[in-house]
Amino acid sequence: MMQVQNKFKKKSNTLKFALVGNPNSGKTTLFNQLTGSTQYVGNWPGVTVEKKEGKAKFLGQVITILDLPGIYSLSPYSPEEVITRNSLLNDPPDVIINVVDSTNIERNLYLTTQISEFGIPIVLALNMIDIFRKRGDVVLLEELEQKFGVFVIPISASKSEGLKELISRAIYVSKQKNNTAFKNFYEADIGQTIEKIEKIISQAKNEKFGSARWSAVKIFEDDPLALKSVKLNEAQASKIASLKNSIKTSRNVDRQIMVADQRYKYICNACSKAIKRKCALETETFSDKIDKILTHRILALPIFLLFIFVIFNATFGQFGNFFKEKVEWFVNNPFALLFSDILDKTGASVWTKSLVLDGIIKGVGVAACFLPQIIILFSLLSLLEDSGYMSRCAFIMDKLLRKMGLSGRSFVPMLMGFGCTVPAVMSTRTIECEKTKLATIFVIPFMSCSAKMIIYSLMVPVFFNDNQPLIIFSLYLIGIAVAVLSAIILKNTVSKDTSSSFIMELPPYRMPTFKSLFIHVWERVKDFLKRAGTVLAGCSVVVWFLRSFDFNLQMVQDSQSSILAGVATFIAPIFTPCGFGNWRASVALMAGLAAKESVVSTMAVLYGAGDSVKLSEAICAAFSKASAFSFMTFVLLYTPCIAAVSAIRREFHNPKWTALAVCYQLLIAWVVSIMVFLIGNLFF
Description:
This protein is an alpha/beta fold.
């Protein structure tokens, strides 16, 4: 067995641990538990696209913890694998905490066999041990430790079980000075060949590419990055080529497949001795039984649509409206009256009172009234995501998306678009095919983000009170339909002749934890509050100023004489065919480019409405049913907020494509709104 000096130790008071594991192994949950981070925890592969970093302190020891992307192997075939591999090679941690799903241990241990050859100390975290034990299964820890040459710590990240022991053991391992011993996972012929290649590499002057053992295995597999990074002279390269050629291959079995096959043989042999199962692996699980219905060839899509409709009904029906009304009462009575009294007692000027009450409180307060519905919507969506159901949706939609030039991997970013366009666009980094990624980014903005929901919540009860969930559901469907048509257009132009594979794991159904749900919902609430305190407040003040003063900076009584009315009058005719060619609607749409919530806050300021009731009365007079539906359609489809456009620009790496996307969105929004207005006039 080869002995290699650990070259990766760092002289620093701060230790660095890297979390490495398969998708759905609970890696990000462990990261949150250790660091207190509010990184979103999902239950689909690829949720962690970039490495995430956090700090932890244990018994006085400061630890930097990296959460690397979930991967199945270290072969650089996907963006996640490249990110993880490069991070371990270029900036190696003191210890790798290898997170292994104990309920699927054989598959997870394949990655363990790879990272154990890096020469970096490893502690194996056997996660979800509570579920493992609940099945009646038993693991012989000492046997497993002996087979893989690492410490094995059983944990349950979701229940914080075993975490202290895990970190304690990782700190202990990081401070050991002994050499790292490599396990031999291969049969005699391949194992001996790899050892001989390793000796040659050890004598060569190389760039850093992991340990000599790692480089030897990768060169044996004909890994192009290893062959490029390891500098060999002509004699060394010739000798290695001769050693590799001594292992016969066939057309269907190359050296990489040989290595993988022998790793799995070793894993199966080790697990047969270390794992005692109550039931055979072939036994039908609870998740398998549910999937017979939820992933049924015919029933899957109707069930998915039913789930979404129920969520909308709970959010925008009586349940959601009840909490919305309570918040509205608080904002418009105790809160607004308190500030009014304070301003009166301090002798504030007329314009100051107008700024605070008519500008900030009316603008931000009206938008804040819809916060309960945001919480309800994302709580219910989180239940579906964290339970594992959304992974099934990606599987269900793959065939349909492929016909549109996308893939099942596009489904997760598109689904995230219903929350926020920014992370949705960033998550497209998991899509290997560049043209498929481009097409996915193009259509994501048509998914109705949560900020637009506030606008629907304002207008739908005014004009469509008897059919609120149905109308809002139809808006979401319009967005999806436009996305589908756009994807088909792109498929026949930009993405023509593009195909990409889609392989994903369907995780077992799990009961979502309260902490996971809280983190997900809090991220949305925090984002809204941050916007309310910055973008919405700022927009409200700017709109108030432009609405309250004329070009001579004299305060006006009638907003028709204001600076804003003068400027917006030139823009308004563009929207006349859409049914809302008035200057107030035009200004609200312009404000929506900063943040879609600004549409509501701007309308509140422009119409001088202190609460949603007065604002509802004002928009009832300004819009008809057809023009209101047309306005909401335009909001649904037109350019997303500045932050989203910036994210699109970063992912496109091309300002021309970004400009094209923005122009396309504006054109589509204008054309579809006209069509909706014309059709609406026939029915309303």
